[in-house]
Design goal:
With about 110 residues, the protein is mainly α. The chain has helices spanning about 5-15, 25-30, 35-50, 65-80, 90-105.
């Protein structure tokens, strides 16, 4: 999120009583370190991202777009796993048939 968007969200939280709980007075003090925080985040991402465990840096000024980007990243990651239901072999089908017969034979 940009520094300007963070400022606007803080002001919104202060102006809207229903959002007051989201604001802490330390937020104003910590905001003075915004540029340093961004530099640290960038260094951390570069130092820890791998092909097997990537970081996804998404724009956050527009919540709807942020959510769209995150949903797309999740969808791509899940698709890349090529998940499928386990196959049931003949031996397992026989076990399932026995279980079904037992359930149907029960009273109640």
């Amino acid at each position: 999120m940009s520094k300007a968007e963070q400022k606007q969200r803080f002001l919104d939280r202060l102006e809207e009583p229903a959002k007051n709980w989201k604001f802490g007075t330390a937020d104003v003090d910590e905001r003075q370190q915004f540029d340093q925080y961004m530099k640290c985040y960038e260094e951390m991402v570069r130092a820890t991202a791998t092909v097997q465990a990537p970081w996804y840096v998404v724009p956050a000024d527009n919540k709807w777009f942020t959510r769209l980007v995150v949903a797309d990243a999740i969808e791509q990651a899940l698709t890349g796993l090529r998940l499928k239901f386990p196959e049931v072999g003949e031996a397992q089908r026989a076990v399932l048939a026995q279980a079904k017969a037992r359930l149907l034979a029960e009273k109640g």
